[in-house]
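Course assignment 3, question 2. Fill in each field.
Student: A.L.
Task: Predict the tertiary structure for the chain below.
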Amino acid sequence: MQEAFAVAVERWPEDGVPGNPGAWILTTARNRAIDRLRRDKRLAEKRELLGRELERGEEEADVDEFPDDRLRLIFTCCHPALAPEARVALTLRSLGGLTTAEIARAFLVAEPAMAQRIVRAKRKIRDAGIPYVIPEEHDLPDRLASVLTVLYLVFNEGYSASSGDALVRRDLCAEAIRLGRVLAALMPDEAEALGLLALMMLQDSRREARVDAGGQMVLLEQQDRALWNRTEIQAGLRLCERALALGPAGRYTLQAAIAAEHARAMRPSDTDWPRIAALYGALERAHPSPVVALNRAAAIAMAEGPARGLELIDQLAPALDKYFPLHTARGDLLRRAGRTDDSLEAYRAAQELASNDVERAFVRRRLRELGGR
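Answer field:
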């Protein structure tokens, strides 16, 4: 029903309100439900077919290298004959449990563009006759980066759901961490495998504090840190230290080091923001992206003041105009700088982009606090 209303908001301004709006909504919702059931059925059939294909070659393969069937399937799907982004997107759609819309959000592209990317990947597999066979041990390093990206994006969707009425999808977070543990045990000398597991555990340790008893989103600086899972934090810190020792620090290890700085701070005022800003700087140099640049700008704002952060964020606005966190970050810094009218404008822009019910409620609360509607 929620999806039907979303379609109505998109179409009715252009096509006009139908003669019987209630019936239109009901029919659209029913069709969406049927589509979802069909997608779930096709996904189950594909997994069964892929499983049978793998079983054919199981006798020739050293299956002991894969102590987990799902991880084996992910390695199999991350075929090097496909472009990196295509293989990751296809694996997320086939095995990661993510919808095309969720994958598109993760890659910051439009849903139709992502759908075409997945279709082209499937077509290339078909036309080139790429076999789904279990990779040998010497093939794993060539596929590791894509496998890590798959786990990372599954966890991210679970940690901050792009739709629905909950901020956190615990099932996705738990599965990504479980697979991360298996991967770290399978490849214990791979720094980035350890770094990713450390990052996921350190982020997941704050899960219970991210939403209050009323289901409202709680920002990091306002969270009750007594609710943070200290056992998970200690395990994450140890993994991060091991990953840093193996070096050189890659994108996941650097993010884990940033999460570790937050985890060590018993109070918000204890946070070493200059250190976090420096780590984001290293991450941006190693793996430039506008999202990393946004996080670095936010850290610099905490270290040097909102004016400096706003200067950096405004430079990123064209590239991230449709990115919800940019507008909430900008709104918060404008609020801190005492620019209430500009802050209201930023939060209204965020309201238009919020795709999760908890995010929408947070923005509405901010607007009320600032005196807006």
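Instructor remarks: Residues 272-373 form a domain with the Serine Threonine Protein Phosphatase 5, Tetratricopeptide repeat fold (CATH 1.25.40.10). The two ends are 26 Å apart (CA to CA).
Grade: pending
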